[in-house]
Description:
This protein is α/β, with parallel strands linked by helices and about 425 residues long. It folds into two domains: about 5-210, NAD(P)-binding Rossmann-like Domain (Rossmann fold); about 290-430, Rossmann fold (3-Layer(aba) Sandwich), CATH 3.40.50.720. The chain has 16 helices and 15 strands. It has helices spanning about 15-25, 35-45, 55-65, 105-115, 135-145, 170-175, 185-195, 210-240, 245-250, 275-280, 285-310, 335-345, 370-375, 390, 395-400, 415-420; strands at about 5-10, 30, 65-70, 80, 85-95, 100-105, 125, 155-160, 180, 205, 320, 350-355, 380-385, 405-410, 425-430. Helix 5 (about 135-145) links the parallel strand 7 (about 125) and strand 8 (about 155-160). Bound molecules: nicotinamide-adenine-dinucleotide.
Amino acid sequence: MNFKKICVLGLGYIGLPTASTFATHGVKVLGVDVNKSIVETLQRGEIHIHEPGLRDTVSAALASGNFSVSTQPQEADAFLIAVPTPFHENKFGEYNGQKYKLADMRAVTSATEAIVPFLRKDNLVVLESTSPPRTTLELVAPILARSGLQAGRDFHLAYSPERVLPGQILRELIENARVIGGVTPESAQAGADLYSIFVKGQIVQTDATTAEMVKLMENTYRDVNIAIANEFARLADKFGVDVWEAIQIASLHPRVKILSPGPGVGGHCISVDPWFFVETAPELTPLIYNSRKVNDAQPHFVVDLVKRALGDVIKGKRIAALGLAYKPDVDDLRESPANEVVHLLQKEGARVKAFEPFKLEGLPGMDMAKSLDDALNDADAIVLLVRHTEFINLKPIDVAAKTKARVIVDTVNGWNAANWQSAGFAVTRLGAGK
Length: 434
Ligand SMILES: NC(=O)c1ccc[n+]([C@@H]2O[C@H](COP(=O)([O-])OP(=O)(O)OC[C@H]3O[C@@H](n4cnc5c(N)ncnc54)[C@H](O)[C@@H]3O)[C@@H](O)[C@H]2O)c1
């Protein structure tokens, strides 16, 4: 299939890099977003998100004359949907007395509805948003049928998930393997034709529901494996074992690879996507459900550790919390377990000062330090919550000179305990029962 003009709905972390990359590869692209201020920002030649290299790509796309933005779609050869699919904050499902989270598909629904008036015979529509299984067939296709055209017969419809790593999006968009699931083999082929305009990685064609499942399986696999690592950490604590040593030794087994425990699982993918399986098949997903529960409960385990490190007295204690991001060296605080740890410590009466070098303003309701020194200054204890390089490189002697705190709790195995002990600190490490 030949694509002269495409329309990308949703200009966020996924849609904007995708739209501008198509434009720099010679395709006319209309980027559409319902958020007027995003459209105006882009029309001024500025960007609203931080992603290395994105400013240059968007500038090149605009300069080529191939890229324009609007709040409304237009007729095109292909339509790509890259809108958010979070879960509902205050709406839950229930199965056998157990509550589970529900996907909020309103953005996918309205973006699909917006395409209907512009859909023509032989077009291609691709859903990229991470979605519960069968969304393409059971939500998107019926909405598009309101045009009088039928998916797979009159136009092509496919699902193609994104697997890019924030911070590396522009490179991974091009180099990663891409799966394209069509509602028919012809739809998958049309999707492959489209993405082969810039994708250099392998393009794998399959059916739409398989592609949806693949995306959810990837993130669920990681969530379940982190949950078992977190349970191993709790067991090691109970049995007087150092879980990090035990994991290293167990991983010498040629068929065993254990992931790292930590303060929990965050971000908007791994901690969200497994719920899409639970929601659509609660009777089949006790392992996935319980893994989510284990990872969500991990901040409580961390708070118990801090309590123990402080001799069971937490009320009134000043705690320096180092890191709020959901993973090292990013500014993303969404669903971060570090935030949950801070909230729980506050609830126990601790006076927590948090320091997040990638987002100094932190989140509402938190006492944020302006600098590391500010956080350490009058602390009674230091809790390491994220493996930011800046924290991992700290020298115990330097820290000892900046604070009266002599208690540290390392939840990410970021520091060499012996070095900190030599500098006069009492060290508690997550999963180190020895
Ligand atoms: N960001 C990632 O690293 C990543 C990785 C893999 C998959 N995903 C998935 O990709 C999808 C998009 O994620 P994102 O991070 O780009 O989201 P985002 O929040 O950064 O951007 C989405 C954009 O869509 C716009 N939007 C909402 N409803 C719309 C509508 N009806 N029509 C047009 N625009 C609309 C929003 O205003 C926003 O600008 C999600 O399903 C997400 O789970 C994201």
